[in-house]
Amino acid sequence: MTKYTDQGKQDTRSGYGAGMTELGRTNPNVVSLCADLVGSLKIETFIEENPERFFQVGIAEANMMGIAAGLTIGGKIPFASSFANFATGRVYDQIRQSIAYSDKNVKICASHAGLTLGEDGATHQILEDIGLMKMLPGMTVINPCDFNQTKAATIAIAEHHGPVYLRFGRPKVANFTPVDQKFEIGKALMLNEGTDVTIIATGHLVWEALIAAERLENQGISAEVINIHTIKPLDEKSILNSVKKTGCVVTAEEHNYLGGLGESVSGVLAMHHPAPQELVATKDTFGESGTPEQLMEKYGLNNKAIEEAVLRVLKRK
Amino acid sequence: MAKNQELQDLVYQVRRDILRMVHKVNSGHPGGSLGCTEFLVALYNEVMDLKEGFDMDGIGEDLFFLSNGHISPVFYSVLARRGYFPIEELNTFRLINSRLQGHPTTHEGLPGVRVASGSLGQGMSVAIGAALAKKLNGDDHLVFSLHGDGELQEGQNWEAIMYAAGNKVDNLIATVDRNGQQIDGPTEKVLPLGDVAEKFKVFGWDVMEIENGNDLDQVVAGLKEAKSRTGKGKPVCIVMITEMGNGVDFMMHTHAWHGKAPSDEQLATALAQNPETLGDY
Question: How far apart are CA A211 and CA A223, in angstroms?
């Protein structure tokens, strides 16, 4: 099995901050907005180096989305940032009308997505944001897996014209993708080739999928692991090529099974190549307070859950 | 500078366009459109500094954002008669495959429109963003916006009002169409707005009033006065008192024509009150 090394645990939101720092130095049209969460979004360096290109909007996310839409008129590339809950569900209609329907080149950058926000509890742990955003026509939805990939994705979306939802998180997790890996929107990454089952993971669950694959290998099961960082547009070709080979699939994400990556994969398979699938995702529930590890264990979103799902899906082949 | 009579002729013609557009498809919003006819005619033909043609970025020209998108008939008519798209296209208002959607949108690429509006309360934020982009670009042109008074019940406006004053967005002139009416009745009965001017003032705006927003001279003078107040550290608000349905006697003094089209007979009566001046489309 292909070996991946953790270069040292880091939070994906710091990857966003590092990406913003670089964009601040390289792209004069990039502007940043934040709704009273500068420290959480790790954009202090961007602000320090480009004070005139940063807009603090206060605790007013609806206004932030509208201002971001307006800033595109005049050629700016706004990165509007907040927690995932407040950057999507709270302002859905502002995003829908002023950004998506108006074809505005706004990047919605959301930290603290999913359960791994931890102790703050369900008011802040959105598990519906991928679904909300992927349903908007024209919206690109990206959920990178580690620090390096989040930084690369942040830089890449500035070059993409159109609205983007970039989702990342709070906890320090393994940083294992190559530091210089080019980020191609909509292109799945093959992490490990296998023959018995395909594991398609996104975000924090990618590293968990690799751990699961290693344990499965020890049991004589060959798992193919694909990192889907772009949920929309979905790399259907890579998914179909893999599932045609392995005959079954497990999807893994830190999101509700309704509206998430798993559902998108199911749709592709149903249309082109029906195959057994198990979904590692939350089961139409809100989260709760706890440490990230406790929550991922309780809600079945870790490497153990992926391993169990693989064993289940293999029996259905 | 257009002569006053030319502007007045345009007002009559735009009113006819509004009535005929709404009548043809038996849907749309004539009341608020008629109330803001003088404002939009003056803005686009006497007040704003506009480039030839249309590009989305609008660098080097004044910009306008219509927040209360349901008054699309007056917006479309004024844009068409200003040359943004063929006047005949007004024939396609609200029809399938048209660029003239029920509420304005950029989606079909209609020249003159820079953001979708219709879901209320979002336009001021967008106007602020465009005004900030102008400052970043070193573009000393202005951003205008129009808002319904009932629309101020949407909370996002107050986020925007607070932001614009707090951040000295002084290249923005936001006008509130104070017609006192909304779908369910008078604003002061549905959800009282109280003293709109005072509210903007305490938020830190430079506020002025146009006492009769259906008097062309007052509107032109008011908008020019507003321009002279920009660049002084405060966003400028105009509270403009208008009469919904202005120019058609049976559409005035009521909220009944907010979103209702006239019958054949009513159209004939309304058109008789507004002479054809520049040629119907």
Answer: 11
CA A177 to chain centre: 15
List, by residue number, the catalytic residues of A: 61
The CA-atom distances, in angstroms, between A55 and each of A52, A79, A99, A308 are 8, 10, 18, 46
Q: Where are the domains of chain A?
A: 10-173, 189-312
C-alpha span between A98 and A81 (Å, rounded): 16
Q: Say yes or no for a CB contact (<8 Å) between B136 and A101.
A: no
Chain A interface mutation, best of B115, B143, B168, highest count of A Cβ atoms under 10 Å: B115
- Note whether A57 contacts B: Cβ–Cβ < 8 A: yes
Q: Residue B1: is its pLDDT beyond 60?
A: no
Question: Does residue A60 sit at the B interface (CB-CB below 8 Å)?
Answer: yes
Q: Is the ipTM of this complex over 0.90?
A: yes
CB distance A74–B125 less than 8 Å? no
- Kindly determine whether residue A74 and residue B139, on different chains, have CB atoms separated by under 8 Å: yes
Q: Which amino acid is at B67?
A: S
Tell whether B187 is within 8 A of chain A (Cβ). Answer: no
Q: Which whole-number Å values give the CA distances from A31 to A20, A75, A105, A139, A297, in the listed order?
A: 9, 10, 12, 20, 38
Contact (CB<8Å) A63/B159: yes
Q: What is the pLDDT of residues A44-57, one digit of tens each?
A: 999 999 999 999 99
Q: Which CATH superfamily is domain A10-173 in?
A: Thiamin diphosphate (ThDP)-binding fold, Pyr/PP domains (3.40.50.970)
A281, A252 Cβ separation under 8 angstroms: yes
Query: Which CATH code of 3.40.50.920, 3.30.470.10, 3.30.2350.10, 3.40.718.10 fits the domain covering A189-312?
Result: 3.40.50.920
Q: Is the pTM of this model over 0.95?
A: yes
Interface residue A101 vs chain B (CB under 8 A) = yes
Cβ–Cβ of A73/B125 closer than 8 Å?
A: no
In chain A, whose CA is at the least distance from the CA of B123? A66
**Chain segment A85-103, per-residue pLDDT in tens:** 999 999 999 999 999 999 9
